[in-house]
Amino acid sequence: MTDFPISMKNVIGILMVIALNLRQLRLVDGGSHCAGRVEILQQGSWGSICDDSWDLSDAHVVCRQLGCGVALEATVSAHFGEGSGPIWLDELNCTGEEAHVWQCPSQGWGQHDCSHKEDAGVICSGQCCTLCTGGRSEEGLQGGV
Ligand SMILES: [Ca+2]
Ligand SMILES: [Ca+2]
């Protein structure tokens, strides 16, 4: 057991990465895991995203993150019903290239001027394209995204 190169510092670093990755994303009340109200698990609470500045670029990041292809529609005004937890993010300004939706510029966790009447949602193209082709060839299907 002398060749065990991971120091305690490394272990703590790894655990912190794991803890950060416990943040989760889901779509609810849309009838499929690829459509619905956007909810993020942060600090142990599922919360929603405000529809201010919510558009297809933001929605694309959500769809890709979930393995659901591309976004067909970014829905606003609680199209999929109102959430009940915190409103975690507002004024999202994704370029569409982010790997995780919480990496997009926003006002910051919990910083918003919204109510759940403004919960953002998304309708994604679905899981088939990603699973069947390995992930990248879904681009172009939607022409002009
Ligand atoms: Ca936006
Ligand atoms: Ca706002």
Automatic annotation (TrEMBL):
InterPro entries per record: SRCR, SRCR-like_dom_sf
UniProt keyword Cell division present: no
GO CC terms of this entry: external side of plasma membrane
Keywords in alphabetical order: Disulfide bond, Repeat, Signal
SMART domains: SR (SM00202)
Top-level taxon of the source organism: Eukaryota
Domain SRCR stretches: 25-125
Presence of keyword NAD: no
Signal peptide interval: 1-30
Disulfide bonds, paired cysteine numbers: 50-114, 63-124, 94-104
Protein's name according to its UniProt entry: SRCR domain-containing protein
Organism: Spermophilus dauricus (Daurian ground squirrel)
